[in-house]
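Researcher: Please translate sequence to structure tokens.
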Amino acid sequence: MHVWIWISFVVFVLLMLALDLGVLNRKAHVIRAREALLWTLLCVALALVFNVLVYFMYEHNWLGIAENFGARGPSDATAAAKMSDGWRAALEFFTGWVIEYSLSLDNIFVIAIIFGYFRVPQQYQHRVLFWGILGALVMRGAMIWAGTELITRFFWMNYVFGAILILTAIKMLRSGEEEPEPDRNPLVRLARRFYPVSPAFEGERFFTVVDGRKAMTPMFVALLVVESTDVLFAVDSIPAIFAITRDPFIVFTSNVFAILGLRSLYFALASLLDKFHYLKLSLVFLLAFVGVKMLLTHHYHLAAEVSLAIIVAILAVGIVASVLRDRRRPRPPDDGGAGAAADSDAGI
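Model: Translation complete:
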């Protein structure tokens, strides 16, 4: 009967998206940092409120949602002996949400590069991200279902997922700041077999007509690249949360709240990305830690609260180190107020 909880959650998400695009952002406009920060805080608050709701759902077994919760995952008996189902579910949701939200930061770097490559006007970037996130929700739901089935049926998939995370960490550590190449993107190349690309943007439209033929606008091509890169990020992030919990509802909802907060977080941080110099290194260590945890899942149990503390510490070290580095960076010489005057004239 807990299928009604799933349905209720999906309806809630759809209503939030409809309110976003159909009411609050009905007219295209540039998302300013203050507006983006307020939306980010709202998304964080909603996730924390839902975290409390998760506690009550599993503590009191609403509609039977917690019937198989205690039997999922290795060494669950040890964990269950230390805390109730409600506390354990709430802790797993929060840890999974932190991991997914943290890994989405790397996605923000890529989205910024994609928008810069296609020169997507700022007032239309929200629309691209909205439809990109809607597609990401569908794709991640399918991937979470497949991952849950694989881990449930084949215990050795833990080692496969753990290896994927470690290899991803190594690849991220060795990679430079290379930009994505949309012309080599398989999804874009496939789309171009069916539709030509218009030479210019057509307002908010994804499609237009060129020489009597239906054509994609550059904004739709940008959307395709954003969608395809999210699939690649999902291949990394979804195995990471399976190291924390095997409950599909917690896996899905923590992913959804992280994705819902990604759009506003992008607009809040887009101008500050260059200041988080060591954040990528923190994500490397985070992926490596979760990968090792997954490889050892059948041999050594690490308490959920310990995992959360380690994850938060890894992210905190990267952020603090980045802030300290930015403060030590030499500042441009004072131009005697000319720069301030220019900013004032520009309306900044």
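Researcher: Any highlights?
Model: The beta strands are 207-210, 213-216.
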